[in-house]
Design a protein that fits this description.
The complex is a heterodimer. Chain A is of the alpha/beta class. Chain A is built from eleven helices and ten strands. Chain B has one domain. Chain B is built from eleven helices and two strands; from the N terminus they run αααααββαααααα. Classes of the chains: A alpha/beta, B mainly alpha. The structure holds adenosine-5'-triphosphate and magnesium ion (MG).
């Protein structure tokens, strides 16, 4: 498979003025993300996940090293808008990323910026809102919607730009369980449609749904593997300070007690099938 | 509670006035205000009042709803009335100790009050029948010719759009901060006016910090969605100048001519 994002020896530092030493948030990251894949990034607070994410679409530019999306370098000012159209980004706080006081106008914001013609924008907006099940809320004011609905509007706003990749930075952190499930369902649907997904999250249950998990610690990638392999190494996962998903805890307890759960089971579905057979 | 406050008050509807281009309505409002100062006699005021109520009727906004908007400025109207009654010299109608009321004073006071009331009602037709976003679009389009002399019309309109969007968010934030401080014993309700004003300072500081944080987040989200200023940007809902706008313009021109005419009666 072709890779859509390639990060080479990325170092990113937040400058702190003359006196103080700069804060190194990303420290020598090498990363290739395949087109159409679903990658989760996990790690403790301050491990550099958000800084890495903002480097992916040029909101931050590398201190050294390089980031390329579809071969376009984020350092190149001439192509930065083409790059940002290709790689959308959804942030944690739904309130602070909605621009307009009418839902459909907010979704139209991206396409308007791209200079698409008005009639076409109308269709794009309707389609984007339908794909997050918010078609009935077109004319509503965002501040009257629930957190989950607002986040779905924000996602529609990104979908409307027709990106080939979307980076989600803790999109569910401020939502209730129902809102969280809705957002996860949309993310998976988008992935099925062929959009590459990078999901930053603190919820291991969400990370388990990805096909690849990247674990960060102190600005470095410390683990990078399929969920099954990552959680096979329980000691190491614990050592980097991550919570284990309930299902993984259950499997490891079962094994400890002498029940030999096969190695290829690591999610709820697999476990149900195993128990019921 | 605090999120119920509606600002710029739009009264949803589908009337002919609602459907007019925002630009037509903005220009009409400005013209109406100027005309109120051209008017100098009773006939002019009668004509302006009659025309205004006719437009209100067409707009289908309940008059009751409009008069409600006068309440906050009622004191100002009374105040200008009183000042004018007592301060203008002329033929004396009434004299008692240091109080004198002149014929001219009464006349002037009446006209000033009528002007103010018509001015407020007239301009509220604009905000009641125009969606805030169409209003900002209209302002942007009208200011566009001034780009040449360096007026950033797009940026001004974008600022108004964002302000409209974030007023409820900031009100909510204020509510949250006040509750958090009340929970720790802050008292905003009792004491002298000065004392109460002082107790608002601890609310303003966190509010400002939170506003800056929101601004930073929003700027990042807008940049991520390819916002690069007004250049090369299209709009989904282009405001359009239609046939009814032409009729409205003809009507406005006729109205202007008649108002000027009343000066010579
Ligand atoms: N704007 C900034 N200015 C200076 N330092 C920053 C800034 N943003 C983040 N940092 C620092 O960079 C490091 C990495 O932060 P980052 O936000 O990328 O972590 P994170 O993994 O996203 O954490 P979280 O899980 O809390 O979101 C931290 O040490 C943080 O203090
Ligand atoms: Mg973060």
């Amino acid at each position: 498979m072709k890779s859509i994002i390639s990060v080479e020896n990325l170092i990113f530092e937040y400058p702190q003025g003359e006196e103080c030493e700069a804060i190194r948030a990303v420290d020598g990251v090498n990363l290739e993300i395949e087109e159409g894949s679903f990658v989760a990034i996990v790690g403790q607070n301050g491990s550099g996940k958000s800084s890495l994410a903002k480097n992916l679409n040029g909101l931050l530019v590398p201190t050294s090293g390089s980031v390329k999306v579809k071969g376009i370098d984020t350092k190149d000012d001439e192509t930065i808008w083409e790059l940002r159209q290709n790689i959308g980004m959804v942030f944690q706080n739904p309130d602070n990323q909605i621009v307009s006081s009418i839902v459909e106008d907010d979704v139209a914001f991206g396409p308007e910026n791209l200079g698409i013609n008005p009639l076409e924008i109308r269709d794009i907006v309707d389609e984007a809102l339908d794909s997050v099940w918010m078609g009935d809320y077109k004319k509503k004011a965002p501040h009257l919607l629930s957190g989950g609905q607002k986040q779905r509007i924000a996602i529609a706003g990104v979908i409307a730009m027709k990106p080939s990749c979307i980076v989600f930075d803790e999109p569910t952190a401020m939502l209730d369980p129902q809102g969280r499930r809705d957002v996860m369902k949309i993310i998976k649907e988008l992935n099925v449609e062929g959009i590459t997904i990078v999901l930053i999250t603190h919820f291991m249950e969400e990370a388990l749904q990805a096909e690849r998990i990247i674990v960060m610690e102190d600005g470095k990638i410390v683990m990078d593997d399929s969920p099954y392999k990552i959680f096979d190494n329980i000691e190491k996962v614990r050592a980097v300070g991550l919570e284990l998903p309930v299902i993984i805890k259950l499997i490891s307890e079962l094994r400890k007690n002498g029940i030999d759960v096969p190695k290829n089971i690591f999610d709820i579905e697999g476990m149900v099938n195993y128990i019921c057979q | 509670m605090i999120r119920d406050i509606t600002l710029g008050q739009y009264f949803p509807g589908n009337s002919k006035v609602h459907k007019l281009d925002a630009r037509t309505k903005i220009i009409a409002t400005i013209m109406f205000i100027v005309e109120l100062f051209i008017v100098n006699n009773f006939y002019g005021f009668a004509l302006a009042t009659a025309t205004m109520f006719m437009i209100i009727k067409v707009s289908k906004v309940p008059v009751r709803f409009m008069v409600k908007g006068l309440k906050p400025i009622f004191i100002i109207i009374i105040f200008t009335f009183v000042i004018n009654v007592f301060m203008v010299d002329g033929t004396i109608l009434f004299h008692w100790k240091f109080i004198t009321i002149s014929y001219e004073g009464l006349y002037r006071a009446f006209f000033m009050a009528a002007r103010l009331i018509l001015l407020i009602l007239g301009s509220s037709i604009l905000t009641l029948t125009t969606k805030p976003l169409s209003l900002t679009d209209g302002i942007e389009k009208l200011l566009r010719p001034l780009n040449k002399i360096g007026l950033p019309s797009h940026e001004i309109a974008m600022m108004m759009t964002i302000a409209l969007r974030f007023i409820p968010t900031l009100l909510e934030e204020t509510d949250k901060i006040m509750k958090a401080q009340q929970a720790r014993g802050a008292d905003f309700e009792s004491g002298s006016v000065i004392h109460r004003a002082k107790s608002l300072i601890p609310i303003l500081v966190p509010l400002f910090i939170s506003a800056f944080r929101i601004a930073q987040d929003l700027a990042m989200a807008m940049e991520a969605r390819c916002y690069k200023g007004g250049k090369g940007r299209t709009r989904m809902n282009e405001i359009k100048f239609t046939r009814s706008d032409i009729y409205a313009s003809v009507f406005l021109a006729a109205f202007l001519a008649m108002i000027i005419g009343t000066r010579y009666i």
